[in-house]
Structure formats: structure tokens, C-alpha cells
């Protein structure tokens, strides 16, 4: 990756993380841990990969993104705001009564959201449907879906994967945010979905394993996915839950908890110097 582009993305990702902790702190509730682990990949998608237009969020030829693990809405909202879909200042209204920024993505009211999600396991099915629609309509847009590693314990994920492979949906790219933690603890201690890459391979996917915080690896993975024909791609991204905030990293307790005022100030300072 061009060093200037990489620096721009790293800078943007820090701003996305600041937006996440600001929104969750303002709401006094939400899901910061998984939002922070997914921030780099979502930053890359919206600022370097996907064909989207904030001025025309419903254009027919846009690429689609489905946040299957919809509880990390703060990450999606922060990215959309920085991209220009709605004012950054609105992030402080997250989960507030009357706010359009609900606790989970709402397609009807939030510009740039392609699928209302949050019931775990269901988003990938919607993404598969979008990818199939593109094939049936002879459209060349791509569909991206982000799933959680805990989420893929849901059986519907594998029904969708089976169908995607059977229909040779090479315009579909699934990202698994593999931060190894879910609400009740480490995924391998709750209901292990490991080995994740081999499972997707068994379902007929092209599989790419990456460090989900390295923009060079992120770029290489998405570029490679676009060259694959006849099968969907799954990018299994090794990430750190709470990435960038010292006291949140690798702590499952921050799956669904908001920082208090003191913790919020520490988080913002961490993100000023975070790499």
C-alpha cells in the first residue's frame, strides 16, 4: 500500500474509534469492544474499497455492506458519519430517545445502512440475497458482510454459507471479526467455532487469513477476493477486542458497557497516540 494512503487510513481509523467511544459514552450504553476491533476493516471498506456515495446513498450500482453483528452499530455509524452520510455531531445522540441512531442499524432511517440488523446470525442471509440479486440482474456491484466470531456459532450462518457456495456467489465477501471474545467470555470456552478457516473452506469458500489491524494485509485480502471466480470469499481477520483503548483491549467485560467520564478521557488520550 502507498505509505500516504496507509497513513490516511490509520488516521481515519483513529477518528472512527474516537467516534465510537464518544457515541457509547454519550449513550451510557452500547458495545465498544467489538466496534473497536472492527474499526480498521470498516474504515478500509468505506474509504478505500466500496463504491458508495454519501450524496446518493441508494444508488443502484453501489456496493452493499451488511453488518451482521449489528450490535457494533457505533462502528458503522462512526464510519458513515466521517464518510459524510450524516453529521458527525449526531453520534452523541446514539440510543437517545427520538434519535435516528438506534442501538442497532436501521435501514429505514439511517442514510448508508443497507440492512437493518442485530438479530445475530441473520445478516449473512440478507447479504447472500443481495449478492444473488446482483447475479440475476447482471449487475457488477459487490456485497460485503461482517460477522462476529461468536455470531458464527449461529446455525443460520452456515445455511447461508452453503447457499452462497452452491450459487457460486463470487461477488460476496464475508469478513469474520475474529477477536476471540463474546459476551460471556472467550469463544473457544463458550461454544467454539474453531477452526474457522477450515469450516468456511469446507463450505466451498475461498478463505484468506489476515491481521485485521494491518492495512497492507487488509488491502491485499480485498484485492485478492476480487480476482476469485466461482466461489465466495471469507476473510478471517485476527483482531483485538477493544483495540486502541488500553483498558478495553482483550477484556470481554467491555463487550457491552459504556465508559464513565474518567474512562472516556483516558480512552480519548489513548486514541491520540494509538498506532
Amino acid at each position: 500500500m502507498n505509505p500516504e494512503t496507509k497513513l490516511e487510513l490509520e488516521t481515519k481509523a483513529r477518528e472512527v474509534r474516537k467516534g465510537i467511544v464518544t457515541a457509547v459514552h454519550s449513550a451510557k450504553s452500547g458495545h465498544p469492544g467489538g466496534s473497536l476491533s472492527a474499526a480498521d476493516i470498516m474504515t478500509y471498506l468505506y474509504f478505500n474499497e466500496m463504491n458508495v456515495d454519501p450524496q446518493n446513498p441508494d444508488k443502484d450500482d453501489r456496493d452493499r455492506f451488511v453488518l451482521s453483528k449489528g450490535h457494533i452499530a457505533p462502528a458503522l455509524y462512526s464510519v458513515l458519519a466521517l464518510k459524510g452520510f450524516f453529521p458527525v455531531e449526531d453520534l452523541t445522540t446514539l440510543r437517545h430517545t427520538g434519535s435516528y441512531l438506534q442501538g442497532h442499524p436501521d435501514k429505514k432511517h439511517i442514510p448508508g445502512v443497507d440492512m437493518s440488523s442485530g438479530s445475530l446470525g441473520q445478516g449473512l442471509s440478507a447479504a447472500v440475497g443481495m449478492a444473488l440479486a446482483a447475479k440475476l440482474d447482471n449487475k457488477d456491484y459487490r456485497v460485503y458482510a461482517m460477522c462476529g466470531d461468536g455470531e458464527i456459532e449461529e446455525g443460520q450462518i452456515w445455511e447461508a454459507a452453503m447457499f452462497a457456495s452452491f450459487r457460486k456467489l463470487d461477488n460476496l465477501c464475508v469478513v469474520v471479526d475474529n477477536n476471540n471474545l463474546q459476551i460471556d467470555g472467550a469463544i473457544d470456552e463458550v461454544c467454539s467455532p474453531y477452526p474457522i478457516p477450515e469450516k468456511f473452506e469446507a463450505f466451498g469458500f475461498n478463505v484468506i487469513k489476515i491481521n485485521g489491524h494491518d492495512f497492507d494485509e487488509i488491502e491485499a485480502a480485498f484485492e485478492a477476493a476480487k480476482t476469485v471466480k466461482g466461489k465466495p470469499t471469507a476473510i478471517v481477520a485476527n483482531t483485538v477486542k477493544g483495540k486502541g483503548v488500553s483498558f478495553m483491549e482483550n477484556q470481554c467485560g467491555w463487550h457491552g458497557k459504556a465508559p464513565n467520564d474518567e474512562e472516556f478521557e483516558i480512552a480519548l488520550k489513548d486514541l491520540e497516540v494509538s498506532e
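The longest helix spans residues 3-27. Strands lie at 64-67, 143-148, 172-178, 181-182, 185-186, 206-211, 233-238.
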